[in-house]
Amino acid sequence: MVRVELKNIIKAWENFRLEIGYLKAKDGEFLTLLGPSGCGKTTTLRMIAGFEKPDKGEILFNGNIVNELPPYERNIGIVFQDYALFPHLTVFDNIAFGLEIKRLPRDEIERKVRWALELVGLEELENRYPEQLSGGQQQRVALARALVIEPEVLLLDEPLSNLDAKIRERLRSEIKRIQRELGITTIYVTHDQEEAMAISDRIAVMNVGHVEQVGKPLELYYRPKTEFVARFLGLSNILKLKAKDGKACIGGLCFDVERDGKVRVFFRPESVYVKPGKMAEIVDYELLPGRIRLRLKIGDELILAERFLDELPFSVEDLPERVDVEVRSFSILK
Ligand SMILES: Nc1ncnc2c1ncn2[C@@H]1O[C@H](COP(=O)(O)OP(=O)(O)OP(=O)(O)O)[C@@H](O)[C@H]1O
Ligand SMILES: [Mg+2]
């Protein structure tokens, strides 16, 4: 299998500049490029695929520079958002296409296509044409077509964004299962943070033209280094505080920040535990399925706390006016 590395990459257009100092997808890893529209995800993927050349820097597969290799010599499988199936070919022939170009013997093509059909659960539909398939089925064909050539690297650009929520969830866990089964190095592009969290070994969060932070999903979620990463991945509390003697405090709530001066303390609403007490005022609340989101005023700041209803130390009908607050996990932003 293959390790993919990007080193000192620069790609610039008139109104956009992408710079990536270093980014790696390890052998067999599922790496996701996550970021808002226009941040450079597709451009990055297209450079890895070889459809786009970096102005500067190197792209390496297993330590070998592939900058000059055209896409078809990089041994990659690609899946796009819009499936891009051949409308006049059956499911079977769509999947067989890449193998026929390689002029493999007929029986080998048959065997490989059947393997790919089974992998994505489409055995029954091999004689249909794309227009006779649902969006989810079409995307499975696209996935089978990418996998049938047994690529060393699988590249997916927002493959699920044209599908409805239910199918999207089903297909994403299937993509993950197949990726694990085959152990194939995979680089996946999405702007959907939930999808990224669910599917990835590691995530590279991108912001206009650069990578903000790379890490495992929970590491990024609970210990973001920047405000951008914190806010992009979910609801955030960010308190601007002044630390003294290694502690930053507000309204009786203290954080061991191990430094002095200005700090920005970050924590998720679900890291905030409450019990009846004096520290914070419950300003208002919102009920969510099985959960409650409390807006608390502590000092002169507002923070969010989110708890499962069955672990609240009081009933919703009988909310106290004030609570004590404990934050069990926090990080310091740059
Ligand atoms: N061939 C091109 N010529 C000029 N500018 C381009 C070209 N391709 C992309 N860009 C610009 O580069 C920037 C990044 O585009 P890119 O497609 O990589 O973003 P993205 O993160 O994939 O966004 P989205 O989530 O909308 O797909 C955009 O501002 C885009 O307009
Ligand atoms: Mg894109």
Helix content: 25-40%
Number of separate strands:
19
CATH-assigned fold name of the largest domain: Rossmann fold
Mean pLDDT equals 95
Bound heterogens, unique = adenosine-5'-triphosphate, magnesium ion
**Helix and strand composition category:** alpha+beta
Provide the number of structural domains. Answer: 2
Percentage of residues in strands: 35-45%
What CATH architecture label of the largest domain applies?
Answer: 3-Layer(aba) Sandwich
Order of helices and strands: EEEHEEEHHHEHEHEEHHEEEEEEEEE
Provide the CATH superfamily of the largest domain. Answer: P-loop containing nucleotide triphosphate hydrolases
Strand order of the largest sheet: 6-7-8-3-9-10
Our count of helices gives: 8
* N/C terminus separation: 36 Å
The CATH class of the largest domain is identified as: Alpha Beta
- Uncertain stretches: none
Largest sheet: 6 strands, mixed
If you compute it from the alpha carbons, what radius of gyration comes out, rounded to the nearest whole angstrom? 24 Å
Keywords summarizing the entry:
25% helix, 8 helices, P-loop_NTPase, 5-stranded antiparallel β-sheet, alpha+beta, 334 residues, Rossmann fold, Molybdate/tungstate import ATP-binding protein WtpC, ATP-binding, binds magnesium ion, binds adenosine-5'-triphosphate, ABC-type tungstate transporter activity, 6-stranded mixed β-sheet
